[in-house]
Amino acid sequence: MKLKELESCLQQVDAFEEPKLFLEQYPTSPHIAACMIYTIHNTFDDIENKLVADLGCGCGVLSIGAAMLDAGLCVGFDIDDDALATFKMNTEELELTNTDIIQCDVCNLEPAALTKRFDTVIMNPPFGTKHNKGMDMLFLKTALNMARTSVYSLHKTATREHIQKKASDWKVKMEVVAAELRYDLPASYKFHKKKSVDIEVDFMRFSIS
């Protein structure tokens, strides 16, 4: 499947109807999601026939992208039952059979239960703003525990040096696959004054082995 075709398919995926501010629910755009999954698949061969986890999966755009590129199974983890209901509806409409969902708090998963259970972990974690400070790093630490091979994640460019230091402390290799991507945050909440805001984010790969 070509990149444009994948992006076109992901444009059909329904996003949050009523996003929840306390969960930092912002949709990953079809363009960024397609570029992420396509690169993971074509450059690193970490999708096809792999067991993939999607942490904070929301309505499932990353999982669905992975499923479309022939992941063996992609399991989405999210705390929000409304988002997971939309995820399930999306996969049913697209007739995908290689996805599953688990409702849980990603930051409070039992570490031993999922250690090294997945080949690849993909995620667009909460950026850790407002009252969720540090949430991005909790997601990353959980992902690194779960993955056998690699973790792919989006993080604010401004946090790159901090994440590099953490990766070094945790003895994992970090590389920036794509730097300073424009992440378009649409006006989702009442306090948003502008129609949309661009935030610079890095698409990162963390190698376990």
How would you explain this protein's 3D organization?
It is a single chain. By secondary structure, the chain is an alpha/beta fold. The protein contains 7 helices and 7 strands. It has helices at residues 3-10, 30-42, 61-68, 81-93, 111-114, 135-146, 160-169, and strands spanning 51-55, 73-78, 99-103, 118-123, 147-156, 173-186, 196-207. A 7-stranded mixed β-sheet has the order 3-2-1-4-5-7-6, sandwiched between helices. Strand 2 (73-78), helix 4 (81-93) and strand 3 (99-103) form a beta-alpha-beta unit. Helix 1 (3-10) crosses helix 2 and helix 2 (30-42) crosses helix 3 (61-68). The relative contact order is 0.15.
Short description:
This protein is α/β, with parallel strands linked by helices and 209 residues long.
Q: What portion of residues is helical?
A: 25-40%
> What is the number of strand segments?
7
What is the terminal separation in angstroms?
Answer: 28 Å
Number of helices: 7
Low-confidence parts lasting 5 or more residues at pLDDT below 50?
Answer: 187-195
Provide the residue-averaged pLDDT: 88
Query: What is the CA-based Rg, rounded?
Result: 16 Å
Helix and strand string, N-terminal first? Answer: HHEHEHEHEHEHEE
Report the biggest beta sheet as strand number plus sense, adding barrel if it closes.
7 strands, mixed
Strand content: 25-35%
Salient structural properties:
209 residues; alpha/beta; seven-stranded mixed beta sheet; 7 helices; 7 strands; 33% helix
